[in-house]
Amino acid sequence: MSEVVRTDALSKRYGRTTAVRSLDLVVHRGSIFGYLGPNGAGKTTTIRMLVGLLRPTSGSATVLGHDVVRDRDEMQRRVGYLPGAFVAYPDLTAWEYLRFLGHLRGGIDETRVAGLAGRLSLDLDRHIGTMSHGNKQKVGIVQALAHDPELVVLDEPTSGLDPLVQREFLEILREHRDAGTTVLLSSHVLSEVEAVADEVAILRDGALVVVEAVDRLKARAQRRVDLVLEHDGAVATLLRTPGVHRVDGTGRRLQVSVEGSMAALFSAAAPYGIERAVTHEPGLEEIFLGYYEQHHEHEEVVR
Ligand SMILES: Nc1ncnc2c1ncn2[C@@H]1O[C@H](COP(=O)(O)OP(=O)(O)OP(=O)(O)O)[C@@H](O)[C@H]1O
């Protein structure tokens, strides 16, 4: 079964607020799926429904083939979950806490736990109550991965981690993915998602704006090309060129926004003599902002 997560018109309302509206989402086995959106978009609400902590108002979701409401307990045994605001027992050491959880889950692989903790530079003998926010977050990450779950659901996992630990953590996720684990990762830190995700969904006001493979999203996105030409007068020609969205600048120095292949742009610019061309690869951030802008423009038109 390749569909690890599937939602059908999944919705959640809180009174008059619709936090998640009619969500249709599929996450495939062995992939890292980035779930993106600004604060309040509905990421946490979606995730809490998927891990069986919140009942959908309407629609349904299956995780590893289990209905998240009806087969909640079976589902939860096969899933690792890091909540957005992770809290654990302050009076226990990390080891005591993880052994306690292991006991509830039917055993713990101590070598695995020690290995994960070592890579994240987490001292398991410290009391959780005395730990910094970042170290508590590491305890949360280790508990989510400790039982080697088939699906790992992580809500804003890197909050509080320093850059080196973040990098190690993303590497751990990649290794799990390569071993067949599925990872669902929510974030508003686009660079981290970009570094690991195979596919991303962008959520806004509780609804999906786009779901796409990261590579395809990037290929479709606009790139900026800075051109230095030998001759003036290229602007009108470039603006007529397929894929070119806008041209800024005057004279011989132009900044061109282009979507898709660059071939047409370079053919059109060639007669003006290309002295220099620098292309800027779009990050997920630009793509993300692009989608929001498009959406807003659309709303303006609709109004
Ligand atoms: N228990 C609740 N009661 C009422 N409204 C809620 C509740 N929980 C969330 N909401 C509302 O639902 C919407 C979605 O919130 P949610 O926490 O899912 O967003 P999010 O994308 O996870 O944001 P963040 O990145 O800030 O955590 C928001 O408008 C929020 O105010």
Automatic annotation (TrEMBL):
Entry annotated with the keyword ATP-binding: yes
Domain ABC transporter: 5-230
Annotated membrane topology: Peripheral membrane protein
Keywords from the UniProt entry: Antibiotic resistance, ATP-binding, Nucleotide-binding, Transport
Keyword Ribosomal protein carried by entry: no
Highest taxon, organism lineage: Bacteria
InterPro entries in alphabetical order: AAA+_ATPase, ABC_transporter-like_ATP-bd, ABC_transporter-like_CS, ABC_transporter_ATP-binding, P-loop_NTPase
Subcellular location: Cell membrane
GO MF entries: ATP binding
Family: Belongs to the ABC transporter superfamily.
Name recorded for this polypeptide: ABC-2 type transport system ATP-binding protein
Organism: Nocardioides marmoribigeumensis
